[in-house]
Write a structure and sequence with these properties.
By secondary structure, the protein is of the alpha+beta class. The chain folds into two domains: 53 residues; 263 residues, Beta-galactosidase, Chain A, domain 5. It has six helices and 21 strands. α1 runs antiparallel to α6. The longest helix has 32 residues. The N and C termini lie close together (11 Å). About 8% of the residues have low confidence.
Length: 355
């Protein structure tokens, strides 16, 4: 097939336009600058504004996203062993709970079922304000590769047996094998295994206070819609009334680490009355008594604004360096095509052939 000069130019121009357009949307293909598995476009759309403060044995964090009719906020505070979580959204109702890290219990698995039952408790050590009053909160923050700020709060009980490590971020953050979303705070609890003598196991008790009825789920929000973590249980609290309902939750991993070894976590609760009791129990078996047990938990909210922005088509953004380089290459392609077409036309004229 023989191309005329005009057809050749049109072909080159069409190819040029296709290449330039492809380069201009290159950034819209799911780049992930910090390597956490979450596309930058989603992180940009859901990055929250965070303010944090610390004073003695307490800290507070306020996290905000959106404006006007599409806006939500959650506040997390801590004081002497008790956390308070509150969430509100535009045209919605507020939801909240208080969560106290209540006690540690040593127990013996007399019936061999791997969980703590009534009559198996050897002794109880109170936590809450008894263990954490006046225990200073240490804080730090850092900026991640994608520009988001990550906040850390650490507090040790007065006797040094239990540590609370809280992490909260403006954007998504990968921690170990899980991804922390900007709508929640990760709470890692470390317990000295030596609190249990030979043949004993450990259990960690919580008390949740709320005006609503908590609901136990056999999976967490992470598993249900985001795949940011696996093998979790959750207690959520939903407030409803005039306006949109609001939900806050407390979730925990079904596995803990005992001396670096993964062990199953059994639980009982929540109990029937407010404050609602929850107990996580650990069958230590042959784990070294000098090691620690680390339990991963999460305090979070189901953000209405996040869901809106997550399901919205991301804005297409151009990559200027790639665009400029492609444009230069395309200009060369067009120029070469025109020269070749001109030579072909001249040759035809000299030989007397029609185009």
């Amino acid at each position: 097939m023989v191309l005329t000069r005009a057809a050749a130019i049109a072909f080159a121009s069409s190819a040029a336009l296709a290449v330039v357009l492809a380069s201009s949307v290159a950034v819209a293909d799911g780049s992930d600058s910090d390597g956490d598995g979450v596309p930058d476009q989603l992180e940009d759309a859901t990055q929250r504004t965070v303010a944090a403060s610390v004073a003695g044995d307490q800290f507070s964090v306020s996290s905000h996203l959106g404006s006007g009719a599409v806006e939500d906020e959650f506040d997390l505070s801590y004081h002497a062993g008790t956390f308070s979580l509150w969430y509100t959204q535009s045209s919605g109702v507020d939801s909240s709970y208080e969560l106290q890290v209540a006690n540690l219990q040593a127990w013996q698995d007399r019936n061999g079922n791997g969980r703590m039952d009534p009559g198996e408790i050897s002794r109880t050590t109170s936590l809450g304000s008894t263990a954490f009053a006046n225990a200073q909160v240490a804080t730090s923050n850092r900026t991640d590769a994608d520009g988001g700020v990550v906040y850390s709060f650490v507090v040790r009980s007065n006797d040094g047996n239990v540590s609370l490590n809280v992490t909260l971020a403006q954007r998504f953050e990968r921690i170990d094998d899980a991804i922390l979303s900007p709508m929640e705070a990760r709470l890692d609890l470390s317990m000295r295994q030596g609190l249990a003598t030979s043949g004993e196991n450990l259990a960690l008790g919580f008390r949740m206070g709320t005006h609503e009825t908590p609901r136990l789920e056999d999976h967490s929000w992470h598993e249900a819609c985001s795949c940011f973590a696996a093998d979790e249980h959750e207690i959520n609290v939903t407030a409803s009334g005039e306006g949109s309902p609001s939900t806050v939750f407390f979730s925990w991993s079904d596995r803990a680490a005992a001396g670096g070894t993964s062990i199953p976590v059994a639980f009982t609760g929540p109990s029937a009355s407010n404050p609602y009791g929850l107990t996580l129990s650990y069958a230590l078996e042959t784990s070294a008594p000098s090691s620690t047990v680390v339990q991963r938990t999460t305090l979070g909210v189901r953000s209405a604004v996040y869901e809106i922005r997550r399901t919205t088509t991301p804005e297409v953004r151009g990559d200027l360096p790639l665009f400029a380089g492609t444009f230069a290459a395309v200009a060369t392609l067009v120029g070469v095509t025109i020269v070749l077409a001109s030579r072909r036309a001249k040759h035809r004229e000299e030989t007397g052939r029609k185009p």
